[in-house]
């Protein structure tokens, strides 16, 4: 990159000689791209370099529109770090917020002792309560229109697309306690419809709900209740989605995982044949779950049927481009909420180690935990058969060989699988010769000398280390060929990165780059296709302008170094970084060298593997206008 010297230049930047994938799906062309006043000023071959203040050499790069991240939980991070640097560095220039029924559209909603932001976000998105409280303390808006005005005042990095969150809508109309204990009255339902319609008129792109059985409240006395959206029955969902359908918005949803009939009935709402007009619907998620291989097959079949000519749906399952690698801090992990014996441990405060120890030492709990952990692993029966066929009910992975220790107070165990440590424990308890360190010997004697089986061993690990133990497993998307097939499926849409949530449990910020890398195996035609799926297609689904780099468009574009992309080892990009904004450690990705330039509205936000000093301090992105 170098500066041109012409004082009379009409363009701010000229990107020279890049291979341009324009987001349309067409094959790329070698072109120059001129940017002026935040917009694409010209495209073509051999544009006049002297007409630009700064010339950027793109000859070794792909140029493309900035990428969309269609499933984030950046609602809280926007309040403390509006530049959203962890997404920007990976080429993301537009993010969708307020997914899964959670958001800040109605402000803090503190009333009658309830603290909904803390209660709803702490366990669902694994964000510390003190961070959530600090954010809620600063909230000074009370309705969706004021929130939109607030967002437009932030020093945004990426552009925003925001949804109206159903849990918060229920709380606003019904009150917190009623929202998690009863159905709405007719007057309350009409009030929800009115608020939703007004929000769509004010620029909200759509409406988000949630039905996954992982999402529980964080404050007593409601820690055994799920978030408000999950108390809504089908008639309520239909009434509200009819508003979205009429207005041309998008519905973001998750399926009731344990009910095939419920899933089909719910998502038939997308179909124009049954409801007069298709409802744009985007759903989490098309994952190749390791413990149940049928889920992804049924998901793809459902998408094909709903989008068929017969039913005329507009249905888009989100596909994750990465292995679904999830870290756990002791028992604290999103997936553990699915299983009662693990969920009980998540109900305690994060700092309450003594409370978890009491649970782990309770004889009745030990019996129930061991029965859960060993289910399907011994003897004969339906459980054993389902485990052998990969048709288990749990998404949580209970295979010790698949559980790898990342961080442990006993450093000798870091990098080992639970199976390797279990073998060591069994050998020591059997009296075999042991050559471990003094610290290892002491630990084994204090915590593991009574271990007889897998259940005993896992309980001992949780007692010994609690949340100081960080371990990971890949619960889905282990087969890279299957992941590529899902990404290239026209019925699906790349997404579900979950950026901004699960600080020490997930790190999918580079999901879009992984999609580009997997597509590149098929050459330019497949890269052109996946670029469209990451740019223009989500812009259409969410009803906003963007995803293109035609003359006159806002200059949201990126350069990608294809050589560095091919070398990217996306299995080893995760790092632990302390972030002052959260006063907490976070898992992030580092893929420096892959994206040499990220430009948002003509502002270079990231270049030469460094952030521009203006990111997060100067407004770059905007809240995108809906086009319906």
Structure description:
This protein has 628 residues and is α/β, with parallel strands linked by helices. It folds into two domains: 67-323 and 477-503 and 510-611, TIM Barrel (Alpha-Beta Barrel); 326-474, no CATH class. It is built from 24 helices and 23 strands. The strands form four sheets. Strands 1, 2, 3, 4, 5, 6, 18, 21, 22 and 23 form a ten-stranded mixed sheet that branches. Strands 7-8-9-10-11-12-13-17 form an eight-stranded parallel sheet. A three-stranded antiparallel sheet has the order 14-16-15, with no helix packed on it. Helix 15 (363-374) packs across helix 19 (454-465). The longest helix is centred in the first third of the chain and has 16 residues, at 186-201. It is globular. The two termini are 40 Å apart. The model has no long low-confidence stretch (mean pLDDT 94).
Q: Work out the strand percent.
A: 15-25%
Tell the overall outline. globular
| Distance separating the two termini | 40 Å
State the CATH class of the largest domain.
Answer: Alpha Beta
Biggest pleated sheet: 10 strands, mixed
Total count of domains: 2
Rg value: 25 Å
Helix tally equals 24
Number of strands: 23
Q: Give the structural class.
A: alpha/beta
| CATH topology assignment of the largest domain | TIM Barrel
CATH superfamily of the largest domain: Metal-dependent hydrolases
Give start-end ranges of low-pLDDT stretches: none
| Average pLDDT | 94
Helix content: 25-40%
Overall CATH architecture of the largest domain: Alpha-Beta Barrel
């Amino acid at each position: 990159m170098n500066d041109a010297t012409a004082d009379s230049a009409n363009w701010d930047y000229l990107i020279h000689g890049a291979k341009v994938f324009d987001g349309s799906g067409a094959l790329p062309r070698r072109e120059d791209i001129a940017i002026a006043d935040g917009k694409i000023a010209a495209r073509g071959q051999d544009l006049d370099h002297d007409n630009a203040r700064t010339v950027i050499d793109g000859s070794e790069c792909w140029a493309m529109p900035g990428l969309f991240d269609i499933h984030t939980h950046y609602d809280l991070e926007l309040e403390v770090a509006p530049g959203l640097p962890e997404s920007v560095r990976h080429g993301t220039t537009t993010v969708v917020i307020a997914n899964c029924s959670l958001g800040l559209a109605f402000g803090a909603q503190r009333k009658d002792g309830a603290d909904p932001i803390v209660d709803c976000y702490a366990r669902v998105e694994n964000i510390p309560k003190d961070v959530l409280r600090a954010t809620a303390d600063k909230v000074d808006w009370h309705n969706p229109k004021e929130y939109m005005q607030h967002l437009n005042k932030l020093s945004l990095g990426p552009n925003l697309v925001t949804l109206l969150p159903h849990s918060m809508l229920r709380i606003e109309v019904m009150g917190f306690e009623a929202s998690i204990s009863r159905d709405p009255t007719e007057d309350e339902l009409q009030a929800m419809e009115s608020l939703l319609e007004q929000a769509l008129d004010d620029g909200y792109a759509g409406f988000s709900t949630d039905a996954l059985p992982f999402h529980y409240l964080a404050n007593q006395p409601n820690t055994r209740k799920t978030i408000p959206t999950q108390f809504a029955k089908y008639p309520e969902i239909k009434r509200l989605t009819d508003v979205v359908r009429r207005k041309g918005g998008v519905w973001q949803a998750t399926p009731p995982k344990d009910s095939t009939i419920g899933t089909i009935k719910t998502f038939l709402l997308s179909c124009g044949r049954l409801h007069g007009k298709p409802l744009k619907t985007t759903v989490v998620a098309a994952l190749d779950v390791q413990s149940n291989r049928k889920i992804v097959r049924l998901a793809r079949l459902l998408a094909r049927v709903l989008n068929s000519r017969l039913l005329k749906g507009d249905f888009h399952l989100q596909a994750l481009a990465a292995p679904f690698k999830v870290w756990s801090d002791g028992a604290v992990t999103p997936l553990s909420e699915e299983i009662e014996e693990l969920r009980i441990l998540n109900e305690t405060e994060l700092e309450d180690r003594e409370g978890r120890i009491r649970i782990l030492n309770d004889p009745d709990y030990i019996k129930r935990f061991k029965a859960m952990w060993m289910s399907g692993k011994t003897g004969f029966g339906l459980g054993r058969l389902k485990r052998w066929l990969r048709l288990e009910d749990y998404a949580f992975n209970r295979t010790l060989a698949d559980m790898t220790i990342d961080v442990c107070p006993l450093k000798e165990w870091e990098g080992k699988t639970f199976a390797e440590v279990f073998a060591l424990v069994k050998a020591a308890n059997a009296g075999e010769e042991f050559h471990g360190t003094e610290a290892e010997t002491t630990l084994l004697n204090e915590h593991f000398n009574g271990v007889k089986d897998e259940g005993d061993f896992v309980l001992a690990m949780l007692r010994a280390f609690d949340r100081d133990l960080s371990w990971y497993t890949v619960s889905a998307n282990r087969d890279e060929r299957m992941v590529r097939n899902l990404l290239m499926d026209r019925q699906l849409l790349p997404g579900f990165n979950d950026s901004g949530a699960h600080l020490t449990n997930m790190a999918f910020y580079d999901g879009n780059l992984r999609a580009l890398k997997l597509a590149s195996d098929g050459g330019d035609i497949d890269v052109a296709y996946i670029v469209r799926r990451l740019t223009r297609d989500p812009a259409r689904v969410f009803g906003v302008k963007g995803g293109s780099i035609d003359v006159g468009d806002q200059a949201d574009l990126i350069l990608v170094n294809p050589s560095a992309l091919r070398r990217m080892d996306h299995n080893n990009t995760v790092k632990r970084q302390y972030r002052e904004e959260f006063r907490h450690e976070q898992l992030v990705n580092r893929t420096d060298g892959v994206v040499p330039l990220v430009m948002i509205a003509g502002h270079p936000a990231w270049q030469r593997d460094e952030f521009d000093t203006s990111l997060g301090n100067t407004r770059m992105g905007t809240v995108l206008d809906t086009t319906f």
